[in-house]
Amino acid sequence: MDASEDSDDVLAMRAGRGDRLAASRLIARHSPRVLAICVRMMGDRASGEDAAQETFMKLWRSVGRWRPGAAKFETWLYRVASNACIDRLRQRRPQTAVEDAPEIADETPLADHGLMADERRRAVETAIAALPERQRLAIVLCHYQEMSNVEAAAVMEVSVEALESLLSRARKSLKECLAPMRAALA
User: Fold this and answer.
1) Do the Cβ atoms of 30 and 38 come closer than 8 Å?
2) Residue 183 burial by Cβ neighbours in a 10 Å radius (0-12, 13-18, 19+)
3) What is the pTM of this model?
4) Which residues, in sequence order, are CB contacts of 4 under 8 Å at separation 6+?
C-alpha cells in the first residue's frame, strides 16, 4: 500500500463503503487526539472514553456521508467528537456548582511542590468544567489540542472571529474564577 492509499481521505472513502480495516486504521490513527479532546471536554477519563467510543461508532455509521474537499477528514472527525461531548454534557444538566465539583483523588504520595501542582491542575480543571460548552470546547481545541484558530473554528463550524470571541470570554471567565486563588496557584 503506497502513501496515497493510506491517506485519511482514501481510508475514509473505503470505510464509507464498509471496509472495516480502513475504519480500524482511521480509529487507530486518530484515537489519541479524539480521546484527549473527549476527556478534556467531559472532565473525567471514564466519561471521555465513553464519548470517544461514541465518536468512533458515529464514524463507522456516518463516514459514508463525509465528502473529500468539503472538509478535512480530521476536522470532520473532531466535529463529531465535540458534538458527542456536547450532547453528553447537556444530558448531565443540571450542572453542579464549581464549589460542589468533586475533587479527583490521587492515591500517590506527593511532595509539597507536587501537591501544589496538583491543586493548581484541579482548580484549572474545575474552572474549565464550569465554562459553557462552546467556550470549553474552544479552550480545549486551542490550548490543549494545540489547534490553530483556523482549525478550531472549522471544527466548531464558526468563523475565526467567533472563535476568538469564545476564547476571549472563556479566558475572562477563567481569570475571574481563578483570581481568588491566584496567590495560592502562583
Assistant:
1) no
2) exposed
3) 0.63
4) 10
Other Cβ atoms closer than 10 A to 75: 19
Q: Which candidate, 117, 125, 109, 98, places its Cα nearest to that of 185?
A: 117
What CA–CA distance (Å, rounded) separates 99 from 130? 10
Number of other residues whose CB lies within 10 A of the CB of residue 44: 13
Question: CA-to-CA distance for 13 and 22, rounded, in angstroms?
Answer: 9
Distance CA 4, CA 147 (A): 24
Per-10-residue mean pLDDT of the chain, 186 residues long, equals 70 86 90 92 91 89 75 85 89 61 58 67 86 91 89 91 94 89 64
